Amino acid sequence: MPFADIPPAPPVIEASAFDLAQLPRREQGIDLRAVKPRCPAGRSGEIVVCAPDPEKNRVRPLPDTYVVAEGLPRAELGLGENASIDVHVEQHAMPGAASNRVMVGAKLKF
Fold it and tell me: I need a labelling partner for 69 at 20 to 30 A (CA). Which of 5, 16, 39, 100 fits?
């Protein structure tokens, strides 16, 4: 590592400067949890049930004005008056699975 890329030394903190006994107690309003609770706190003897909003991440249907353009043109190349080649995909059912294939076809007119 080049000398210019060396990170600066971390600051030195005296051990006597940090004392857990000096932190305020929970009754005084400090919350040491990393994740704040989503639900409101209930009173004693009360059961609080809360869940995430099911509508928040729901995928909505597309509007009627959404129009799908035509797909790609057929992958076919004419080789003359009576011959052409093409590339297409096929799916063939096999026991327990489906076989997806990319096929190259040749057509001769006679």
Answer: 100
Residue with the bigger pLDDT between 56 and 16: it is 56
Flag whether pLDDT at 3 surpasses 60. Answer: no
Token pair of 39 as six digits: 């639900």
Report long-range pairs for 64-68 (Cβ below 8 Å, ≥24 apart).
none
Q: How many residues does the chain have?
A: 110
Domain ranges of the chain: 75-110
Measured CA angle at 71 (ends 69, 77), to 5 deg? 140
Measure Cα distances from 33 to 8, 26, 37, 40, 54 in Å. Answer: 30, 11, 9, 15, 26
DSSP letter (8 states) at residue 108? E
End-to-end alpha carbon distance in the chain: 72
Q: Dihedral of CA 29/31/36/42: which sign?
A: negative
pLDDT > 60? residue 66: yes
Q: Residue 87's closest CA among 68, 71, 107?
A: 107
